[in-house]
Amino acid sequence: MDTFFPTPPTLETPEDDNVNARGKDQTLEWPQLIRHEVKRAIFRSSSDKAPGPDEISFRVWKELWLVVGDHLF
C-alpha cells in the first residue's frame, strides 16, 4: 500500500497570511475614493442593467442618491 499510496508531502505555509510563497507582501493598497467618483460611476451606468447580488438596480441608486449618497460613499 505504501508503494502505491505514499503519504503526501506536507504543505509549508508562512506564518503571516499576507506573505506569499516568495516572501512578498500580498497586502493591497487601495486608493482613496472621492465622493464624486462614486456618483459618476453610478450615473454613468445604464439604468436598464440587471441588478447585482443586492438586487438593487442603478435606476434605484440614481433616484436615491441625494438621500443615501453619503452613506453609500
Q: What does the overall shape look like?
A: elongated
The helix content is: 25-40%
Largest sheet, in brief, is: none
Give the overall pLDDT as a whole number: 83
The separation of the N and C termini measures: 60 Å
Portion in strands = under 5%
Extract low-pLDDT stretches: none
Q: Could you spell the SSE succession in H and E letters?
A: HH
Summarize the structure.
The chain has 73 residues and is mainly α. It contains two helices and no strands.
What does this protein look like?
The protein is mainly alpha-helical. The protein has a domain at 35-72. It has two helices and no strands. The chain has helices at 35-44, 58-72.
List the helices and strands and how they pair.
Blueprint: H1 35-44, H2 58-72
Helix pairs in contact: 1-2
From the structure above, extract its key features.
single chain, 73 residues, mainly alpha
